Amino acid sequence: MYLIGKVLKPQGIKGEVKTEIITSFPEHFEELSEVFLDEDANIAIEIEKTRFAKNFVYIKFRNIQSRNEAEKLRNKNLYIPESELFPLEDDEFYHHQIIGLDAVSEQGDYIGKITDVETYPENDMLIIKSKDKMTHLVPVVKELIKDVDIESQIVTIKVIDGLLG
User: 111-128 pLDDT, tens per residue?
Assistant: First the structure.
């Protein structure tokens, strides 16, 4: 399952919820007929309509008719099956695909393990934890990310002066 959003709070009195978008592809919300409230795909909830405002999506779920019912969804994560993800180009990847991979230099030297990917206005950042427990932030830009090999579980990074502290 893939995390695409988090319900923040009810919006209005008719059961709509304000949702934080946690995906690089907000348009997922326009295409979906349902989402899941747990990673095990046990609890599905049907989407009636969506609308976007600023960096949020407002969702009206089919069987949620009041603010009180919507309140029960507060802080719930919204998931979709991996099969619902949009196909990517060869040089693209989803964040969840690279978390846990090893980061190495172009010379093959081990840098550390990718523990997270954070989204910033300019570009995403790889969070890499080295063997000595140092945390490094590496911008996800073509000039630095030279190769992402999901099968081999290796991300190759061009190390420039000052990048790793």
Answer: 999 999 988 878 889 999
Over the stretch 31-62, which tens digit does the pLDDT of each residue have?
A: 899 999 987 778 999 999 999 998 899 999 99
Element of type H or E holding 96:
helix 95-98
Give the predicted TM-score (pTM) of the model: 0.67
Sign for the pseudo-dihedral over CA of 57, 61, 62, 68 = negative
CA-to-CA dists, residue 138 to 49, 87, 102, angstroms: 38, 25, 13
User: What phi-psi label fits residue 75: left (phi over 0), alpha (psi between -120 and 50 degrees) or beta?
Assistant: left
Domains and CATH numbers, the chain: 2-83 (2.40.30.60), 95-157 (2.30.30.240)
Alpha-carbon separation of residue 80 from 2, 22, 31, 104, 106 (angstroms):
5, 12, 11, 31, 35
